[in-house]
Amino acid sequence: MPFITVNQQQLYYEIQGSGEPVILLHGLGSSSQDWSYQVPALQNDYQVITLDLRGHGQSSKPPGPYSIKMLADDVSCLAKQFGFHQYHLIGISMGGMIAFQLAVDQPQQILSLSIINSGPHLIAHSWKIRCLIYQRLLITQLLGMRITGKLIMRKLFPKPEQHRLRQQGVEKWATNDKAAYVNAFKALINWSVQIPLDNIKCPCLILTGDRDYTPISYKADYCQQLTNAKLVVVEDSGHASPLDQPAQVNQALLNFLNQYDAARHDKSTAKSA
């Protein structure tokens, strides 16, 4: 199995395809397996790297505390070890937060950001949000991963025809190490990129499910603050858009990445003329 030592931790990874590197970052409680619909679509044109983040999947699960900055540094060090001087980032939920953090910490490395159902901060401004956060933590600590997974999957995949996705999700969730999951969850709380968003200069694709946890208006608002960003709504989709609407997600990602490549080619041609 392919593992790489990063910051004294063993991270599981897979590399498929050839071309410019595209690193895919999964969400909280997930793993590289949840990109199974995206890798085949991207690998014909790009070198696709999936990994299990610290505390997840087959990677090391050290004691906490964790932070988004720590997880971002893991990804940056992994990229450097592979010799990737620049790369595209695709991240969902927690993975999107890590992608934003990398765009702040290592702007010279990032060719583009594709952010799926995520944002540049998770600030518990209200008592309602705080209660929801700590309710999730309490349920996890008292009832364990399988029951927590069942509750989460009912929200992620509510339709009768999504039964298989629900069952698969529960089984995957049950394999999570509870302590590592809680440490990763705590890393999200009150995290923010802590810079003006217009300081992020790379092209950004903001993808949002129309039934995501946070409203489209939230993504539209921060999308407008970014220097070079486009918002795309995934129809009939919840928080797990790459799984519940893979065709729409894949098309949006390919359109965005291909437009980036075309624009860069045109710019290069103009300079050489």
From TrEMBL:
Pfam families: Abhydrolase_1 (PF00561). It comes from Spartinivicinus poritis. Keywords: Hydrolase. This is Alpha/beta hydrolase. The keyword Hydrolase applies. The keyword Hydrolase applies. Residues 21-121 form the AB hydrolase-1 domain. GO terms for molecular function: hydrolase activity. InterPro entries: AB_hydrolase_1, AB_hydrolase_fold, AB_hydrolase_sf, Epox_hydrolase-like.
